[in-house]
Amino acid sequence: MPDPSSLPPDRFRALIEAAEIEVAKAKGSAAAPFFSGYLDGLETGAMTFGTAAFDLLDSEAEGTNVDYGEGFRKGLMNIEFVAA
């Protein structure tokens, strides 16, 4: 059984589960890097939202594949939107 502190909060879980489906559907396509970045942004953002680390995440996408970075930032923005 996973450690409860390592699981994303319930309010983000549905968003992450939907993104996991999109990543699976996009596998091998040109959209795969974007959706992989998006899922990573959602998961990382959900686990760090409300902490100082969350504010530093946008810079984490710098220097990555452009599509991945765009997806990562979109995931972070959606975490902020859901949390508002």
What do these coordinates show?
By secondary structure, the chain is mainly α. 73% of the residues lie in helices and 0% in strands. The protein has four helices and no strands. Helix 1 runs antiparallel to helix 2. The radius of gyration is 13 Å and the shape is flat. The protein starts with 9 loop residues before the first helix and ends with a helix. The model has no long low-confidence stretch (mean pLDDT 84).
What would the principal axes of the Cα set say about the shape? flat
**Radius of gyration from the CA trace?**
13 Å
Number of strands: 0
How large is the count of helical segments?
Answer: 4
Uncertain regions spanning at least 5 consecutive residues: none
Main pleated-sheet profile: none
Strand content: under 5%
Distance between the termini: 30 Å
Mean pLDDT: 84
Supply the helix-strand structural class: mainly alpha
Helix content: over 70%
What is the string of SSEs from the N terminus onward?
HHHH
